[in-house]
Amino acid sequence: MVGTNNLIAAGSFPIGVGRMLPQDDLALHRHDNLELVIVTGGAGLHLTRDGRYPLARGDVFVVPVDMAHGYGATESLRLINVVYDPSRLELPVRRLAALPGYHALFSVEPRLRRHQDFAGHLRVDERRLSWLEGVVDELHRELRERAAGWEQSAAAWLLQILIRLARLYATQQDPAARTAVRLGGVLSHIDSHLHRPVAIDRLCAIGGVSRSTLQRSFRALFGMSVAQHLIRRRMDAARELLSSSDLAIADIAKRVGVDDANYFSRLFTRVVGCTPRSFRSAGPPARAKRSARARPPTS
Predict the structure, then answer these.
(1) Burial 131-148 (b: 16+ CB within 10 A, else e)
(2) What averages of pLDDT result for each successive group of 10 residues across the chain (299 residues)?
(3) In degrees, to the nearest 5, what angle opens at C-alpha 220 toward C-alphas 113 and 275?
(4) Which among 63, 123, 235, 247 is least buried, having the fewest CB atoms inside 10 angstroms?
(5) How many CA atoms lie within 13 A of 94 on its CB side?
(6) What local confidence, expressed as pLDDT, does residue 299 receive?
(7) What pLDDT does 204 receive?
């Protein structure tokens, strides 16, 4: 049985820091929020339903929401867990998504690890690990002391961590990591061009793969085709605009690359399960629930 283990209490500020000194063996469990793990010492195995992977000082990896994971064969393993809910933070997520290393670390690698032969991961050197530990210390201090402006300061420290890790991942030369970076580049191009037509040949050039290989990769990673993923990302962007702006629905449709407002409404309803107008009028809890139930587009 897989339990739930959360560092963020319901309704509290959506960033948490935990130091596991040491991290003992731990059965498979899930988190309701995204978890960034930094290994600061010792050794052990990271356990998932799909396999087990050795850990050493300097390793950095992401545990997606609802992914079951745990630890085994631990030997003085020391971890820093940074847990956060990006949907409740005013982070420039779309700008972060434009960084190929960001998608590689946060979207591609966790999914590629479902394949037993994927060996890529981010391991930082001592200088960068020392920087990371220092920034996490500052983040943790803001969360503890809660001085004036602490929420904004905590989010700023977290943003520094995310940007630095995305940059580091993009510079890796390991062949497996390069595969993740190329696919991350494809995802970044899609996210940066949601308002315009996206040519699959251009995506193939960015990824350095054929059409058939790109389609297989998307189906393996996301369970949908490239075209379906593009529609899903456009509807994700539309949900954000409906929640955060007063733009007319027709204007939102154009901003996500759909010129026909009626077609946009039908597409949104098919993916999200309600009309754009109904989504906008619902409160944040209802919107979050509908977003979580969003279905893959059929075309």
Answers:
(1) ebeebbeebbbbbeeeee
(2) 56 90 94 93 92 92 90 97 88 79 89 66 93 97 96 96 94 85 92 92 95 94 93 93 92 96 96 94 60 52
(3) 115
(4) 247
(5) 14
(6) 47
(7) 97
* CB burial readout 33-69, b (16+ within 10 A) else e: bbbbbbbbbbebbbbbeeeebebebbbbbbbeeebbb
Three-state DSSP class for 279?
helix
Count, residues in the chain: 299
Q: Which amino acid is at 272?
A: V
Q: Residue 130: CB partners within 8 Å, gap ≥ 6? A: none
Q: What is the pLDDT of residues 72-81, one digit of tens each?
A: 999 999 999 9
CB-based contacts of 232, cutoff 8 Å, min separation 6: 224, 271, 294, 296, 297
Gap between the Cα atoms of 43 and 249, Å rounded? 52
Q: How big is the chain by its Cα radius of gyration, in Å? A: 20
Q: How far is CA 148 from the centre of its chain?
A: 29
| Domains parsed from the chain with CATH numbers | 11-183 (2.60.120.280), 193-292 (1.10.10.60)
Cα–Cα distance for residue pair 24/26, rounded to 1 Å: 6
What is the per-residue pLDDT for 148? 97
